[in-house]
Write the structure tokens for this entry.
Amino acid sequence: MNKILMRCVAMLVVVLLTTADVWAQCAMCRGSVESTMGNGRNNVGVGLNTGIMYLFFIPYLAVAIIGYLWYRNSKKLRAERQLVASRIQQAYPKH
């Protein structure tokens, strides 16, 4: 499992480092920001970029949390199954 986790982290780092336009916007958002920057207000663009990044990361964060919870639950169930199997082997030893 450690190998898989390291590969996923490495892939994520490569993807994040190779994307040049992470802070890119859609055409309508860009037009809105350019028009407000003409008025001298740059905080709209910063807020818009922050909102875009939230929308970008939330689905991945949700999938990561669900995956972690699934892994933790399956690990717990596997331990319970091994405990039951060991008790059965103790109760009925093979001769």
